[in-house]
Amino acid sequence: MEETRIDLRVESPERKAEGRRTRELCFKINSTMPNTDESERLIHELFPDIGEGTKINPPLQVNLGNQIKIGRNCSIMYNFFCMSGGGVTIEDDVLIAANVSLISNSHDFKDRQILTCKPIVIKRNVWIGANATILPGVTIGENSIVAAAAVVTKDVPPNTLVAGVPAKIIRDISDELK
What fold characterizes domain 4-172? Predict the structure, then answer.
């Protein structure tokens, strides 16, 4: 996946405006009674590209809401944390447990004022367990499961269970999905 590099010393008016918009909407969402029309309206304002039937449970914290695409019929539980500078795509029917972190940006080892950003892609029907962390450039394959507290540093093939720090393949779950 292609890496985007952002020099934090060079201000981007568009990025600054989106960061502010996102922070303000996260604050409002996290301060609004959940499961109300107002809460749903704010969530849809934060995520302009969100599919029908998707439920997001506050609180949540993201840095750039316009860089996150969420499919239909997804469930995102409490304390969702998303650094989305590299872009995040969550396809249909994905389950994301509490305290999951999606981190699509990092810093250059030598020049730490440079953000290095790679997209995260979570394919259809993935289940991500509580406290898991997905790092930049990772694609989680269709129907896969990421175990609780796993740290995913590499792509996960479809129909696979991964666990651990760093996450390793535990087994193919194709037969269990039939």
Answer: UDP N-Acetylglucosamine Acyltransferase; domain 1 (2.160.10)
Cα 148–119–1 angle (5° rounding)?
115
Domain boundary assignment for the chain: 4-172
101-115: burial string, b at 16+ Cβ within 10 Å, e else: bbbbbbeeeeeeebb
Give the DSSP per-residue string, 124-157.
TT-EE-TT-EE-TT-EEPTT-EE-TT-EE-S-B-
SS3 label, residue 42: helix
Q: Reduced to 3 states, what is the DSSP secondary structure of residue 27?
A: helix
| Residues carrying an active site annotation | 107
Look up residue 54 and give its two tokens. Answer: 């998707």
Tallying the residues shown for the chain, one arrives at 178
- Give the H or E element holding residue 56: strand 55-56
Mean pLDDT by 10 residues, the chain (178 residues): 90 94 98 95 96 97 97 98 97 98 96 97 98 98 98 98 98 89
pTM of the model: 0.96
